[in-house]
């Protein structure tokens, strides 16, 4: 055969060895980032005898700039009109054949932004035209993945008195009840007795008597002491809540003491408001407290006795809303959560009936009235959002129905910014509740990806918070800002699952983180109760899941660091419940941590000690709720210690990962490494690890949070789903 004749055969052989990745790959090959034959079923799935699914949504498409412009115009019209029909039309009008005109084609993302009142926290949802494989391939992969707190039958507990309590999905109280119940049954092989638990409304005695007459004017304090108590309330609450209009309220106060004998309906309603403010003032000013009744409760009970019915309250709806907010906040602080939630619900409905949630025209009502309307509305909004989340119940007000602007405080720009930040974080609390704690625990069959989206949105606030409300925990000379501390605490609590001036802001960030990541922590705790080896094997399989867990635990550490600094400076809030709420959930997570990470148990013992030192301070102040919570946590800690000390297999060298090669495997840490490969902020002590006792609770930056968020993909979701199914969670 001549060389010329042999050439075609040689070319055919060479061509057969050059394989090109199919443009139409199945979902599994795309996820594993391996070549796909394009057949159905493909060669890779056939060899492994797996189902082979092709999803048209995975294909990248090219669109013209003109088409993107039309979509953006439709989105703008939708946001302006508040309708849903335009969105459906936009979907139905997608072109079947893309134009090849002179317009340059682009590969981009369409971003829908929900703006609440000129810059309130954004709930951003990204639908990438260029890369839809990640979300599009999830439907068939994670059909069994649910949030354990909101899936299956609802949970209830019965107190010693026989009252039945519902365990809400996102409630911190319910989360600890679940942990205590699961741990107690694991250790003692029987249900936990109700006498060992703290229930709503059982801590303080209000001394309520239905036939008790309202207080007389003679029982009120002198004008100088009353002014002092009012200023105390302004100092503790005025930075982030609007409980009274200063000009109107102080005008009534001067009129009352000038002529206390004059009676009129407006004066009677103001007296109710006045006694509620006095109740707060006494609670803030009295330290330490003794007995089973909180300070100022006499003023509070008298105010409730004098509170008229709704038909009378409607004569002055704005002041009535302020009164209802005072009642709800006071009840919340003394652990009457259900009653507080109902009073705030009345305030929300009265505010909406009055139109406070709308864009009230300044030209018609005037600047002073409009600013008061805005302050009242956003206070109601914040209290309703957070109390609803703490109850673990669905949010009742949709953000798309709120059109009023945020208020401004004349001559006090710092207070204006703090008020806005507080509102943004409360908005994120509601966003996380909707994303992670929806009914049946299913969010497009994927709560881990929804957790990712929630954390991504939260990361946008991180740098803004650090820039505007810095928290210098290691600077003893300058001290710590009480307002900043409050906001950072709430931030970390929202990361974990959302007051005197200057310290409140740092706390809000912590709540957001804890709220978003807590379901995953509970899942692994249940796996740990079954087998320490299985838990560590699963943790060593995915560095990204370890990253999410570590974010939860890091935030808990940061909460304790903030509260420890506040304690050293005498700034701990002993009546308002926000510091105690942050401490409660963070200490719970710290108690669980050594159960998941036994190699770092000694370091976690240091954090446990720090948390109990803060509890000791709150208990010495006379806070009975802190005393009861500390007793519960000591019981939980004792049971967890008995689990940790039980015989277990040697876990110093866990078995290697035999999973198939994938994009996940290339980013895995070495076996036995319990911490994710994130670039962490430096600690003030050389050589200290993130779980070291010297860790000072440094927060992650927005870039570091996004690095972790971007590492979550469909493979991790499928992995968590399989683990939950195997362990019956």
Automatic annotation (TrEMBL):
The keyword Metal-binding is annotated on this UniProt entry: yes
Region Disordered: start-end pairs: 642-686
Source taxon at top rank: Eukaryota
Entry keyword set: DNA-binding, Metal-binding, Nucleus, Transcription, Transcription regulation
GO-annotated biological processes: DNA-templated transcription; positive regulation of transcription by RNA polymerase II
Main localisation: nucleus
Biased composition, class Polar residues, residue ranges: 643-652
InterPro entries xrefs: Stress_Response_Reg, XnlR_reg_dom, Zn2-C6_fun-type_DNA-bd_sf, Zn2Cys6_DnaBD
Annotated ranges, domain Zn(2)-C6 fungal-type: 25-54
Cellular compartments annotated: Nucleus
GO CC, one annotated term: nucleus
Pfam families registered for this protein in UniProt: Fungal_trans (PF04082), Zn_clus (PF00172)
CDD domains with a match to the protein in the record: fungal_TF_MHR (cd12148), GAL4 (cd00067)
Gene Ontology molecular functions: DNA-binding transcription factor activity, RNA polymerase II-specific; sequence-specific DNA binding; zinc ion binding
Protein name: Zn(2)-C6 fungal-type domain-containing protein
Organism in which the protein naturally occurs: Purpureocillium takamizusanense
């Amino acid at each position: 055969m001549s060389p010329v004749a042999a050439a075609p055969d040689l070319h055919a052989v060479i061509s057969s060895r050059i394989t090109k990745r199919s443009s139409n790959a199945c979902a599994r090959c795309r996820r594993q980032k391996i070549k796909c034959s394009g057949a159905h079923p493909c060669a890779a799935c056939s060899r492994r005898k797996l189902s082979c699914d092709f999803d048209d949504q995975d294909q990248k498409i090219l669109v013209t700039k003109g088409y993107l412009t039309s979509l953006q115009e439709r989105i703008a019209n939708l946001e302006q009109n508040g309708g849903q029909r335009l969105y459906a039309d936009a979907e139905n009008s997608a072109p079947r054949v893309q134009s090849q005109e002179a317009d340059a084609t682009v590969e981009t993302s369409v971003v829908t932004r929900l703006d609440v009142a000129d810059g309130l926290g954004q709930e951003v949802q990204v639908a990438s035209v260029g890369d839809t494989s990640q979300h599009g391939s999830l439907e068939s992969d994670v059909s069994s993945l649910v949030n354990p707190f909101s899936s299956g039958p609802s949970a209830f507990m019965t107190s010693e008195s026989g009252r039945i309590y519902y365990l809400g999905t996102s409630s911190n109280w319910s989360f600890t009840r679940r942990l205590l119940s699961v741990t107690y049954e694991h250790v003692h092989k029987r249900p936990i007795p109700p006498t060992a638990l703290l229930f709503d409304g059982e801590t303080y005695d209000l001394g309520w008597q239905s036939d008790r007459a309202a207080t007389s004017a003679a029982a009120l304090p002198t004008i100088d002491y009353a002014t002092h108590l009012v200023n105390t309330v302004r100092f503790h609450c005025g930075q982030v809540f609007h409980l009274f209009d200063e000009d109107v309220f102080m005008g009534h106060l001067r009129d009352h003491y000038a002529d206390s004998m004059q009676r009129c309906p407006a004066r009677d309603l103001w007296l109710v408001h006045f006694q509620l403010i006095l109740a707060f003032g006494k609670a803030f000013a009295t330290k330490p407290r003794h007995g089973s009744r909180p300070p100022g409760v006499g003023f509070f009970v008298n105010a409730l006795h004098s509170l008229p019915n709704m038909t009378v309250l409607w004569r002055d709806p704005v002041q009535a809303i302020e009164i209802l907010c005072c009642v709800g906040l006071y009840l919340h602080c003394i652990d009457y959560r259900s009653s507080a939630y109902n009073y705030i619900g009345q305030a929300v409905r009265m505010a909406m009936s009055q139109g406070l949630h709308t864009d009230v025209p300044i030209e018609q009502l005037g600047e002073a009235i409009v600013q008061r309307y805005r302050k009242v509305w956003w206070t109601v909004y914040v209290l309703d959002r957070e109390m609803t989340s703490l109850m673990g119940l669905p949010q009742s007000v949709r953000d798309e129905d709120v059109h009023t602007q945020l208020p401004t405080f004349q001559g006090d720009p710092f207070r204006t910014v703090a008020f806005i930040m507080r509102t943004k974080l409360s908005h994120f609390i509601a966003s996380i509740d909707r994303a992670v704690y929806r009914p049946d625990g299913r969010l497009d069959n994927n709560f881990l990806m929804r957790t990712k989206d929630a954390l991504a949105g939260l990361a946008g606030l991180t740098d803004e918070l650090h820039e505007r409300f810095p928290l210098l925990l290691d600077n003893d000379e300058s001290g710590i800002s009480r307002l900043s501390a409050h906001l950072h605490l709430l931030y970390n609590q929202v990361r974990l699952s959302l007051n005197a001036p200057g310290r409140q802001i740092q706390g809000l960030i912590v709540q957001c983180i804890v709220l978003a990541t807590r379901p995953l922590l509970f899942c692994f705790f249940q796996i740990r109760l079954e087998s320490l080896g299985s838990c560590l094997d699963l943790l060593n399989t995915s560095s990204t899941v370890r990253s999410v867990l570590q974010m939860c635990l890091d935030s808990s550490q940061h909460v304790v660091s903030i509260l420890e600094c506040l304690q050293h400076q005498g700034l701990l809030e002993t009546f308002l419940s926000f510091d105690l709420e942050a401490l409660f959930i963070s200490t719970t997570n710290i108690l669980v941590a050594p159960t998941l990470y036994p190699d770092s148990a000694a370091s976690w013992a240091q954090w446990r000690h720090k948390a109990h030192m803060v509890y000791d301070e709150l208990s010495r102040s006379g806070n009975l709720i802190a005393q009861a919570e500390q007793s519960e946590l000591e019981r939980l800690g004792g049971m967890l210690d008995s689990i940790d000390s039980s015989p277990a297999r040697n876990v110093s060298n866990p078995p290697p990962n035999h999973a198939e090669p994938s994009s996940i495997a290339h980013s895995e840490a070495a076996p036995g490494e319990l911490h994710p490969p994130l670039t962490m902020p430096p600690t003030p002590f050389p050589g200290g690890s993130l779980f070291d006792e010297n860790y000072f609770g440094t927060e992650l930056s927005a870039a570091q949070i996004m690095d972790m968020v971007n590492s979550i993909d469909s493979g991790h979701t499928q992995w968590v789903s399989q683990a939950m199914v195997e362990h019956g969670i």
